[in-house]
Write a structure and sequence with these properties.
Oligomer: single chain
Strand order of the largest sheet: 1-2
Shape: elongated
Largest sheet: 2 strands, antiparallel
Number of helices: 8
Helix content: 55-70%
Order of helices and strands: HHHEEHHHHH
Length: 156
Amino acid sequence: MGVYHVYNSFLKRTHLVGVSTDGLIQENVSAPVYKVVAYYILNPPVLDFYGMGIDFQIRIQFFLLIFLAATLIWLLFVRRLRINGDCAKINALSATLWISILAPLSWFVIFKGHSYVHKVHDPIVWFMPFMFYGIGLLGVATEKFLRSLWVSKSIE
């Protein structure tokens, strides 16, 4: 009974295959994928400071733009700025960041029915591992950039 229940729940919440479902579950599964993904890119806050008495939220679209800008700045200007050292690790981190975006996006696509209903719970999916790599890229690239400025100023 237990394994069958898990199997049946998986089928009805992901693909509506061979099971009888109520209207809410049918609505969840029949929702267009692009609407679910667009919601998770545009709407839910990734960082919400409301619990600390501050009426301020940061949404994933902000981080997507910051990570994209950091990646482009790094890739376009690293040679122009003559940053010394091992830049291959940062290049690898940039590539890993943009490959890792597939993890949250695949969750929203595969478990679309779950994501459609549980809009409060699923923004955490962005942190596994996309946000960690993005924050790491920002930190490492900023440190490398500032260190190159500091070294060039001390030489002059």
